[in-house]
Amino acid sequence: MKTAASKLFQPLTFPNGKTVPNRLCKAAMEENLSDEGQIPGDRLHRLYRSWVEGGAGLILTGNVMVAPDALTGPGGVVLQESTDIEPFKRWAEAGKSEDGQFWMQINHPGRQVYAAMGETALSPSDKTMEMGNFSKMFAQPRAMTEEEIEVLIQRFTATSKQAELAGFTGVQVHAAHGYLISQFLSPLTNLRSDQWGGSINNRARLLVEIVKRIRLSVKSGFCVSVKLNSADFQKGGFELHDAKVVIQLLNELGVDLVELSGGSYESPAMQGRVTEEDTKKPETTLRREAYFVDFARDIASVAKMPIMVTGGILRRVVAEQALEKDSAGFGVDMLGIAQAMAFRPDLPNQWLDHELEIKLPQVNWKNKTLAALAVMAVTKVQLKRLAQGKSPKSNVSPFFSLIGDQIETNKRTQRYKRWRKNTAQAV
Predict the structure, then answer these.
(1) Is there a domain that residue 216 lies in?
(2) Is residue 2 part of a domain?
(3) Crossing angle of helices 146-166 and 205-217, rounded to 10°
(4) Concatenated DSSP letters of 346-398
(5) Residue 356 domain-assigned?
(6) What is the pTM for the complete model shown?
(7) What's the domain count of the chain?
(8) Per-block average pLDDT, block size 10, for the chain (427 residues)?
(9) Domain range holding 85?
């Protein structure tokens, strides 16, 4: 791989001794491109090879689910102890470069399960989603029993062991964006009065136990990462102080990297937008574009592991600013790029030689929830094109992308239900 004077292209060594050749990570996105049986196939292979060829030092998968009855979407991938890992071995090969890292993001959605999928939603408490008219899209959650919590910990551990056997070089435990572990961390969704609720130490207990078990079950050279909200941007919810406490708990557990993002379905801060007018204001460029960097630098002050920030970076100059340390010497070690790499999978290689600004779709509909869904749909169009071996397409209609995505989702939902029925009958 080429080198450059920019810190973006300097190697980073993780606490376990593993190294990545640069500071750019293809962060996780919701792909929904599994084959029949919720396994990876040729489409995901092609998609990830495009990012490997694009030059990212670290590549993260989209959500891989630890339980067959709890998916973020009907086209998601599932990896459990009983899963045939041969398709995952082929995926691992497709996503690894000679000197890069390929980590599997593992997750459980908790209450963020679509009602149409016909499954029971589990959560720390029975608190429903609050999204106005869109709340009914999600299943009514049920509070988990202690026995179910123990099973969940075992599932995360088993999926991690399977990922290692398949050839992935690490896992990332998803504890952000309002999914199950994030639900335990938030005082708004965790209303428990037992050892799993109340104080931040108790609310973090699930994450801590999962990380402990994973670290004990995999080899020392296998990377273990956590994705954490800097805040969920909801009044009375998970805040910066809570994030610092969680980081301090993780400091002693052999975590190799913490990725910071923010928000949830109810408060989608991770879908921040940068307007053309914003880009003309140099004094606010970093704050507008790399909108979690300030949080990340503050959290880095208590972290023993490297910190990665993901959210909105579109230009090399902003990426370089984001890696600069603050006056106290604290800063971000790595940058996650997600949506921009759906539109330009070779962005890291492009940034080696010159500035390249990515223009992301702007959907200024009055209904902000629909607008956010439309942006996601346009992004999925690009992922699907890359998975077909095609180039991204910039002039895609948000309206027709959203309609097409809904049709695809309905088809995948029916396929998922057939798979669940067939696997239940086979037991």
Answers:
(1) yes
(2) no
(3) 40
(4) THHHHHHHS-----------SSHHHHHHHHHHHHHHHHHHHHTTPPP-S---H
(5) yes
(6) 0.93
(7) 1
(8) 71 97 96 97 98 97 97 97 97 92 98 96 95 90 98 98 98 96 96 98 98 98 95 82 96 96 63 40 55 87 96 89 90 95 96 87 90 93 97 93 96 97 73
(9) 7-426
